[in-house]
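fyi for ur records
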Amino acid sequence: MNILETIVLLSVLVLFHELGHFLAARAVGIPISQFAVGLGPKLWSRRWGSTTFSFRALPLGGFVEPQVDSFESLQAIPLWRRLAFYVAGPIANLLVALPLFGLLNTLRSGLSFHGLFVAPFRQLSEASRQFLGALADLVGDPSHLTGLVGIAVDGGQMVASGRGIELAILLTISLGLMNLLPIPVLDGGQILFACLEAAFPRLVGLRPTATVLGGLFLTAVMVYANVRDIDRLWG
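which gave:
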């Protein structure tokens, strides 16, 4: 049951991520055709206005799809609007960590202005710094990489031990920062390519190949991480 709760928590945090993209798109005038939490077959969907909202079978991510009929139409959207759209998802995840830190501080030390409104910014900065340091270490030693299997099992143990808020903080910061990595299929890659294409238009033709390679890379990393999780937990 605790593993299921971890998966539900991850899906909720993905929902906040995609909601960040969606609200930013609405704010800057980018129409949205699809808002999906999860991947794969649809479990539920409903259309409101011009947007179809759906929950899907695999809680491994999600997407918000602009309502454009071609890549050229997407490119025609002003750069600043596209950048606001791309960066809003990771920012939403990082912002979610602030009230969670505030709640954790209140449970640990009691209600205070500092614990609710001041300390969370410092804690978010420190946690982000630690995460980026750990990410850099993984480049040299990927044996400690954790996949969805490890997140579900280890997260379930944290929930069982009463550390659910800490797990939510860890996951939302991880989602925010991981999505800023400059890999083409992630938000950071979209930001990088949008800026490079604006400066060097001839690079536009490289995006499809880079996107495929980025997707293959992430798939390989996920397979590797989950195989190691299975070996570590049940091998």
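The two ends are 22 Å apart (CA to CA). thats all i got for now
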